[in-house]
Amino acid sequence: MARFRFILVLSLALCCFKLVAEPNKQQLRIVALAPHIVENLYAIGAGKYIVGTVDFADYPAAANDIERIGGYYGIQIEKLLALKPDLVLAWKSGNKTDDLARIAKLGIKVAYSNPASIDAVASELRRLGELTHQQQQAEQVAKAFTKQLVAIRQAQQNKEPISVFYQLWPEPMMTVGKNAWINQLLTICGARNVFANSSTDYPRISIENVLVAAPQVIIIPDEKSSKPQPKIDWRQWPALPAVQHNQFVRVNADLLHRFTTRMLDGLSDMCGKIDMSRQQIKASK
């Protein structure tokens, strides 16, 4: 009996030591300031740590239950402080610099997300894994991402170039330049962006610019917006090659415009539709 009590006491002591030495990971509180950060955290099993986020962070469905503390217009610092986060994950290119400076000045740990290339998404997943103690699952997701990306690239190799106009936004009309994220995706699909040589990443253009560029395909992303998007009836300009061959491709902006694992689903879909346009144009000649 004495020996049994000794073992029980020792077991309890070791258990308590473990709890002190290894803090409960569930206590981690994260505010994620971009939809793509939220998606990636859920992808590696760390979505349960998110206590606050921004507008349009809507995937997966569970993300809709997270408290909103701002959006593209800025962050409500008072709301953020009330959530008592251990870590703020910010989007360097998408969050306001002043907001991020204020958060850092308050002594809250801030880590930045800013993947500059498609391949960098895998590195981003691994880094999020380190920050949230989810290294093993993050590594698995990162490897699966890279494998799928390699497969898409191989499938699109040596495709005949086709000129495209990516209508990022209708009014004011905007498109993408050579350094923009979307242009990297178009390049994988064997598409030649007619505005790749623009001086800015997201240039404003006119209908006349599009007529001069004469794209064979016009790609229109279905973008979520609080207001209905204006529609451009490109058939008013029958001289456009895209109009002549009736080549209008619609893509999912939620997939293509976010630096997440689901982006590859959007990429595969877009490449397939561009390839269909390529075949139809060729058949009509």
Description:
The protein has 285 residues and is of the alpha/beta class. It is 44% helix and 16% strand. The chain contains eleven helices and 13 strands. The chain has a five-stranded parallel beta sheet with strand order 3-2-1-6-7, sandwiched between helices. Helix 5 runs antiparallel to helix 6 (135-156) and helix 6 (135-156) runs parallel beside helix 11. The longest helix is centred in the middle third of the chain and has 22 residues, at 135-156. The protein is globular, with a radius of gyration of 24 Å. Mean pLDDT is 90; it is low at 1-25.
Second-tier CATH architecture of the largest domain: 3-Layer(aba) Sandwich
Largest sheet: 5 strands, parallel
Query: How many separate helices?
Result: 11
User: In CATH terms, what is the fold-level topology of the largest domain?
Assistant: Rossmann fold
How much is the radius of gyration in Å?
24 Å
CATH level 1 class label of the largest domain: Alpha Beta
Helix content bin: 40-55%
In what order do the strands lie side by side in the largest sheet? 3-2-1-6-7
Give short descriptive properties of this protein.
285 residues, alpha/beta, Rossmann fold, 2 domains, 5-stranded parallel β-sheet, 4-stranded parallel β-sheet, 11 helices, 44% helix, disordered N terminus
Layout: helices, strands, pairs:
Elements: H1 2-21, E1 30-32, H2 35-43, E2 50-53, E3 67-68, E4 70-71, E5 74-75, H3 77-82, E6 87-91, H4 97-105, E7 109-113, H5 120-132, H6 135-156, E8 162-166, E9 169-170, E10 173-174, H7 181-188, E11 191-193, H8 207-213, E12 217-222, H9 241-244, E13 248-252, H10 253-256, H11 263-284
Parallel strand pairs: 1-2, 1-6, 2-3, 6-7, 8-11, 8-12, 12-13
Antiparallel strand pairs: 4-5, 9-10
Helix pairs in contact: 5-6, 6-11
